[in-house]
Amino acid sequence: MGRLAGKVALITGATKGIGETTAKLFAAEGAKVVVTGRNLEDGKRVVENITRNGEIAAFYPLNVRQYDSWEKCIAFVEETFGKLNILINNAGISYRETVEETTPESWDETILTNQTGVFYGMKLGIQAMRKHGEKSAIVSTSSVDGVTGDSVFFSYCAAKAAVQAMTKCAALYCGENGLNIRVNAVAPGYILTPMAYEDARQNGQTIEEYCADFAELHPIGHLGKPEDVANAYLYLVSEEADFITGTTLMVDGGYTAK
């Protein structure tokens, strides 16, 4: 019996990187998984890879920046699988810009995706989860940059710091109102994902140069893997974490221990 048997999970940004790895892991642990993202071909590919193993998954083209897209996605989850137990707010973007370089357009895009989209997910996810009263969990993605700050990721740091505060507030709300819903966050260090390749490009580096530079910032001596974050998500949504809510789990190779 898998650790998530009988659960239904919705994962944003699940067509590549950490989200894709998480979708496959959750399905292998017995959950029915709704893979979301805006790339239809990638979404179908992930679902086909999951269902090929006899596991259950479906794709929905969610745009996390749009409230009505969230409403339709939650309705799809309920119509397809009958309920929602797990929400992973994983989708995110970043721009390598200082406070002076940040444009109103890039600020709005970053905040909409990394913060407002998480709010929409929390709000509508809680509404869906409270209907059935089963043990449920929401985990959102913060970042070490939301803890320590970084001058060249102004809007990204702002959004990720907000996610940690939102996580505490939502967890308190659920607890104070007797809802059987835990709310937590994960703060990854630098992980070797497609976003890392894009960050390297924005910084004028090869991925090898990028990895060498950023590995030095992590006392453990290397960048993380998508599996490192996916396993943290799995722990926080499983019954092993029944007494954990309102916290942010650092998955950062010691980055914030310094």
UniProtKB/TrEMBL annotation:
**EC?**
1.1.1.47
Q: Name one GO molecular function term.
A: glucose 1-dehydrogenase [NAD(P)+] activity
What keywords does the record list, in alphabetical order? Oxidoreductase
What enzyme class is recorded for this protein?
Answer: oxidoreductase
What biological process terms from GO does the record include?
bile acid metabolic process
Q: Does the keyword DNA repair apply?
A: no
NCBIfam families attached here?
Answer: PRK07231.1
- To which protein family does this belong? Belongs to the short-chain dehydrogenases/reductases (SDR) family.
Q: What is this protein called?
A: Glucose 1-dehydrogenase
Instruction: Name the source organism.
Output: Zhenpiania hominis
